[in-house]
Amino acid sequence: MLATVSMLGAAGCAGASADGDAATTEAPSGDPAAAEQPAGAGPDGQVYQDGEYSETGSYQSPAGPEEIGVTLTLETDVVTAVEVEPMPDNPTTTVYQERFAGGISEAIVGRRLDELSVDKVAGSSLTSGGFNDAADKIRSEARFQSP
Amino acid sequence: MTQSFEFAAIGTSWRVDSSMPLLPAQRTELLRLAEDYDALYSRFRADSGVTALSASGGSLPLPPHGTALGRLLRSLHDLTDGAVSPLVGERLAEQGYDAGYSFVPTTAPSPARVWDAVLRWGGDTITVREPALLDVGAAGKGQLVDLMLEYLLSEGHDDVIVDASGDMRRSGPGSITVALEHPYDASLAIGTVELGSGALCASASNRRVWGDGLHHIIDARTGRCVDTVVATWVLAADAMTADGLCTALFFADPADLSRSFEFDYVLVYSDGRARLSDPLRGALFP
After folding, report:
1. B39 — phi, psi (to 5°)?
2. What is its cofactor (chain B) (predicted)?
3. Could you please report the per-residue DSSP string of A82-128?
4. Most buried residue, A20, A143, B67, B144, by CB count within 10 Å?
5. Under an 8 Å CB criterion, which residues of A touch B?
């Protein structure tokens, strides 16, 4: 548990903008006491802790490694807001990432994180790889802790 | 129960799954097929066949499968009024997608040279009248998927799939469910399709694959990128055809292409609308 908390701290987790609601378990704040969560699930079987999470994802572009900043807002396991911040090193990537950032928010609002059961996925894109990278980090840091 | 073999080739990740063991010699052969293909067509290698054509022109002898690729590319070229053309290679390079990945456009977009003025793809020989940088990204990755699958079938594999990061071909009983990735967000899908025996390929205008040949869809008639259609998926018997049609659908009406090819498709336009063939009705989430 402690190791998990300190790992989140090191990752710069913005974590706990969720607040107030007594039924909602607090997001990790770096305080070891906050890590005393119910085993593996939140209230009403909720999988992820409410809150705003920021992460940086990286992906390999032909011009070298690029980064993209992703901020997700989670409420009762549903993504309610997405912000994508391009942070490219070269102008072509800027164009691609801005196009990506422009289309993403409208599309993703209100969809669950783990919804589908499929064998394969067709249509991967390179910027998406960076988004996935960031989303995976958020997924693991937002998940209620197992004992 | 199934065996998997994952590797990197022609600038993307590959995964082969089979119900039978993938023997070391078979794995070696898969890698050899990829290496031979790359050595022939990669415009990002100083020692490739197409690089030689771009430096000094002349002729490039191809293995037998080169005939089918040339025929398909010519057919797509004609059906798209010249929008799909291997001669888009030098336009891609000029726009910064060059062997050095400079990402610095050296000229304003301009039309690619006309096929008949420069290029003759006769059977298994490519001849260029003057030095020309060719790009077979429109269908090349699909063809390599086919070559690998057909090799594995010849080795007795009877429930097998070759997946080159979303361009795939399967042979076996039953079917699998494949998600169609949202063009702007890989954590979402816009629908699912069932893949029995056959190929499913995908193209998105924000995609960068095939050592970078196809990440950017350029219209050979104008040299500019295409932004009306943002993503395409095609189901067809083989992956080369499916891959090529994915590119052609950025430029041509599906109805026109369907007079020459048998396939099913999903298109997504930049405004979020989708269009799909009748048998796929219901594939997209409501």
Report:
1. -65, -25
2. Mg(2+)
3. EEEEEE-SSHHHHHHHHHHHHHHHHHHTT-BSS----SEEE---HHH
4. B144
5. 61-63, 90-93, 96, 99-100, 103-104, 107-108, 111, 113, 116-129, 131-132, 135
What is the tally of helices (H) and strands (E) in chain A? 3, 4
**Domain coverage including residue A66:** 2-142
Query: What count of other Cβ atoms lies within 10 Å of the Cβ of residue B261?
Result: 19
C-alpha–C-alpha distance, residues B96 and B100, integer Å = 9
Predicted confidence (pLDDT) per residue in B47-84, tens digit:
999 999 999 999 999 999 999 999 999 999 999 988 88
Class of domain B168-280 (CATH, top level): alpha beta
Q: How far, in Å, CA of B192 to CA of B200, rounded?
A: 12
Residue type, B98: D
Q: What distance in Å separates the CA atoms of residue B142 and residue B68, rounded to the nearest whole number?
A: 12
A29: its two tokens: 């704040």
Across the 286 residues of chain B, what is the mean pLDDT of every consecutive 10-residue run?
Answer: 85 91 97 96 90 93 96 95 84 57 53 87 92 88 97 97 92 92 76 94 60 46 62 95 93 89 87 80 79
Rg from Cα positions in chain B: 18
- Other Cβ atoms within 10 Å of B124 Cβ, number: 16
> Between chains, do A125 and B206 touch, taking CB under 8 Å as contact?
yes
Cα B101 to its chain centre, rounded Å, is 20
Kindly report, residue by residue over B13-24, the tens digit of the pLDDT.
899 999 999 999
Tell me how far apart the alpha carbons of residues B187 and A124 are, in angstroms, rounded to a whole number.
10
Distance from CA of B99 to the nearest CA of A (A): 10
A24 assigned to some structural domain: yes
